[in-house]
Amino acid sequence: MSHCLKNVKSQRMKVSLVSGEMSSQVRLRLLPSARCLFDEPIQVKVAGLRSRQVVSMKARSTDEKGVVFSSSATYRADGSGEIDLKRDPSLSGSYVGVEPMGLLWSMRADTLHKYFFKNNSLNPHVVKFSVHEGEERMLAEVNNERLLIGDGVSRLPVKEGNMRGVLFTPPGEGPFPAVLDLSTFPSEKRASLLANKGFVVLAVAVYTDKPDNVKELHLDHFKEAVDFLQQHPKVGSKGVGIISRSKGADIALSLAAYVPGVEATVWINGSNANIAVPLYYRKRQILTPLLYDSSKVITTNSGAIVIKYSVKNPLAEENKGSLVPIEQAKGRFLFVASEDDLNWDSKGYMDEMVERLKRHGKDNFETVYYPRAGHLLEPPYGPFCPSALHGLLSSSVLWGGEPVAHAAAEVHMWKKIQEFLRSQLSCDATRTKAKL
After folding, report:
1. Are 325 and 287 spatial neighbours (Cβ–Cβ below 8 Å)?
2. Between β-strands 332-338 and 365-370, what pairing exists: parallel, antiparallel or unpaired?
């Protein structure tokens, strides 16, 4: 008899843990579901607390390098013992005020200068949400599985000619618009999330080798990626879109200027000039490198440096050979710049590109400007990163941005990018049939 009772009790315990309940009356729910896409908002609700009870809400996640990120905020239940993060303000903690997704974007590591590494699209971003009485006693917990790759999206590593990348294809026959995702270093996050929205996306990194070993870059290698997408049987768009940030952004500008078939270019917090190494195309150098002046690096108390002012002026006579001739581009641009970008003067570069296009009688651009956002604009709801190790400099740098404003900018930008790409890359079913 006692053996049967033990089994019943253990079953009950299992059930309560799965449903996110630690104490019989407190319920923590994630709506509409505890399983969602990485870039989807959720509603966090607690019920079964005492009237006006004060609790701390926590979130915790471990990245691909094993670094733990966490956040905590204090909330007061209403008269019915309920908390709704869409409605109720945080009183103190990692953020204050009404921030429905605050527990996610405010997660930080215990040590400084850590970026949340989530580059593998096959593993979900798992976040443990919990409710605590005081600091210690846990009342309820539930796991949020935030998927990078949705149902039916396929992932295929690609090695063709000089090109190395990962291809993400939506379910179904298409036709789909095609996008080249250019990241500075290999990352699948943005590409896989775009594929969930109905784009065929090829993720390609600018640097596949250690940056110190890269003495020159060849635009031909990236043209191979554009050609690959145009020839894909599920692609129906007339041309290809490009999404890029940082060093990837000046490569994207160069593709738009020199390579036919680029219809839409999203440039996020980049330069208007070719940064760091010479750029070649068809066996000749087309752009000289814009270099850094290390004497203008600013060191901060945290140990991280500010490199924004150390980039040489691309408009100075001796540096003009590094400027990308974007007036040659046939497609449209979406320029996205953060005013508080501490990596480089993205807003200044954007303004100069707008002036350049206007001087040449062009109006093929849109601009978006975020006053208090920093350099690392990414798909929304990941942990905000104010500083981290710079992949090209082997020092920690300040990226800039105020957490609340930066998080809001990411939500706005992500929607804007999808609208822009969709509007510029109209699909034609007859094109895909012709390829088949």
Report:
1. no
2. parallel
**CB contact at 8 A, 71 and 108:** yes
Coil, helix or strand at residue 342: coil
Query: What's the angle, vertex CA 285, arms to CA 284 and CA 290, rounded to 5?
Result: 170
The one-letter amino acid at 341: D
Cross-strand bridge partners of residue 176: 235
| pLDDT score, position 135 | 73
Burial per residue of 170-191, b for 16 or more beta-carbon CB atoms within 10 angstroms, e otherwise: beeebbbbbbbbbbbebbbbbb
Question: For the segment 253-285, what is each residue's pLDDT rounded down to a tens digit?
Answer: 999 999 999 999 999 999 999 999 999 999 999
Domains and CATH numbers, the chain: 12-147 (2.60.40.2240), 154-435 (3.40.50.1820)
Q: Which of 200, 201, 169, 210 is nearest to 182 (CA)?
A: 201
Is the Cβ–Cβ distance between 18 and 28 less than 8 Å? no
Residue 289 DSSP class: P
Place of tokens 């900018």: 409
Pairing assessment for the beta strands 235-245 and 262-268 based on DSSP bridges: parallel
Q: Which residue has the tokens 């996020």?
A: 268
CB neighbours of residue 24 within 10 Å? 9
Cross-strand partners of 201:
168, 179
The reply to whether the predicted model has a pTM over 0.85 is yes
- Both tokens of 431, joined, read 């094109």
Q: Note the pLDDT of residue 209.
A: 82
Separation of alpha carbons 379 and 388, rounded Å: 18
3-state SS assignment for residue 262: strand
Give the catalytic positions in this structure: 246, 341, 375
Strands (E), 269-355: 279-281, 284-287, 298-299, 305-306, 332-338
